[in-house]
Structure formats: C-alpha cells, structure tokens
Amino acid sequence: MLSANNSGDQAIERCELRWNKSRLLTVGLDDAKCLRRVIRCEPEDDARYRYVLEVALREGEGPRLAAVLKNPSRASVRRSDPTIGKLEAWARRHGFARVVCVNLFAYRATTPAGLNSHPYAVIVGPENDAAIRAAVDGADLVAVGWGNPNGIAPEVYDRRVAEVLELLRSSRPHRVGPPTRAGYPRHALLWNGGCEAVGLAKSVSV
Q1: Tens of pLDDT, residues 94-136
Q2: Positive or negative, the Cα torsion across 196, 65, 67, 25?
Q3: Would you tell me which of 13, 16, 54, 75 could form a disulfide with 39, CB atoms 3.0–4.6 Å apart?
C-alpha cells in the first residue's frame, strides 16, 4: 500500500502533467481574455531565492489573496510553473484580482528533498519572515497550501511550519479543501475549482 506521502507525490505529479498539457492546448489564445501580469518578483534575478511573487489577474483593484506555499521552484518574472498556475486558476474562480505568493522556505528547489542538502537558515532565507509578514498584511484572504513534507526531513519541516503558523497567528489563515491524510494543509497544486477556503483548525498538523 502506498503511504499518504507517496500518494500525495503521485497526485501532484498527475496535476503537473495535466497543467502542462492544458498550457499546450491554450497557446495562441488572446492574452486579453486571461490577464496575467507579474507585479513583482523579489529578488527578480536570483537563482537561489524567491521571497515574493505577486501577480495581477485582472485590471483594476480587487480582493487580494496571500498564499503561503512550500518552496519556490521555477516561477519568476518571466515564467510560471504548475503550482503557480493552479494557484492563479483557483484565485480567478474565487474572484481575486491579485495573488501574492510566499513560502515556508525561500530557497529554490525543483524537488523538495533537495532542501535537505543545505543548512536550515539557508533554506528558510534571511529575509523570508519579513516577506511573509508583508505579504499577509492587508490581504483579503490568507491561505496556506504547503502540503506534506514530500521528502523534506520531517523535523525540519515541522519546525518551519510551527514558526510560520506563529507568524500568521493574527492573520486568520485558511486552508483550501480538506487536509492531507497526514493532517497538513492541501498543496496548492491540488486546489481544484470546487475546493473552498476553510479556517485553519488548531488540529491541522504542524
């Protein structure tokens, strides 16, 4: 039998495949029908870190979603990636005009297990706590979507989750959809259109 963690990994891989196929089918569509404008990516040209990615989903003012995910992969000022694409799609369906994305760990890695090769302070990032506080300040909804550890050492992962939940204490964080079998907030790549935001219960795993 597959463990909950492995099942989550496979579900995320299937979502990435579907996202990439859907991008191939939509190449050439009128961009005006689906605005996507990167407002800021900080730092803009750093191969190691991404503290903040903020994207406008429509012109003008409107509700802002702050999403706290696991760690940045490839998304930048010039490109998206499957997780950011799914996050933006969920935000559009729920009426948000902007989405700002921050992470538990600011160190870029295409696979979470790659973070294990670096010291804790390095993978968290020296400016990350400040970036998280700024991102959630004034947001209309704060949603957490970091999912299971997926290869990150459990003691490292749970330590960081606890730290970030403390940072979010006054922000009334929500999860999207049901938690994972291990009790973590569902990964943003699994935020399907019908999933609703639910206040983060104290029973959710740290």
Answers
A1: 999 999 999 999 999 989 999 999 999 999 999 999 999 999 9
A2: positive
A3: 54
What is the three-class DSSP state of 64? strand
CA distance 101 to 156: 21
* CA pair distance 171, 141, nearest whole angstrom: 8
- Taking Cα atoms as reference points, which of 36, 169, 137, 133 lies closest to residue 91? 36
Contacts 24+ apart (CB under 8 A), 200-205: 200/144, 200/173, 200/174, 200/175, 204/175, 204/179, 205/158, 205/161, 205/179
Q: Could you give the CA distance from residue 28 to residue 125 in angstroms, rounded to a whole number?
A: 38
Q: Which two tokens stand for residue 27?
A: 């190449």
